[in-house]
Amino acid sequence: MRLDRLTIPLVIACAGGLALALALVFVGAVLPVLPVWLNVLITLFAAVASAVHGWFIVKAAFAIADPPKSALETGRPPLEAPDGTMRGGWMIGLLERTATAVAIGVGQFGAVAVIVAVKAVGRFGELDKPASRERFIIGTLASLGVAGLWGTVAYLFRT
Fold first, then answer.
1. Residue range 66-82, pLDDT digits in tens
2. pTM (2 d.p.)
């Protein structure tokens, strides 16, 4: 990953969010059952945290996955998104993470399959280039991983 003025805050945000989520998973696993209003508040917090923290994680995943074009170009910025990159990816990822965190948080695990299926069907026609497929998979897996973690936080406080 290239070092620039964004790298250190990006690493801090990724690590800090991960540490907070794991700490909350532990706390949620040992606390007694909470009132419904607090469960709703925690689920909403997890959804927002998933959307925001996920942006940092996906950005870091793309920074790692897009190395310089060749060894001769080391030190230059990483590759830009391939031509014909899918539009709306940022907003779709935000909605995907939020919906996934909420679905897991309320215990509707089957809804995650629906979310992934809707995203895949919606993007199917745009996945004709290998670079687009690769970015789609990297972004989706990074996004779902973060959403799953924050959804688990909300779910553990719920049960």
1. 655 544 445 555 445 55
2. 0.72
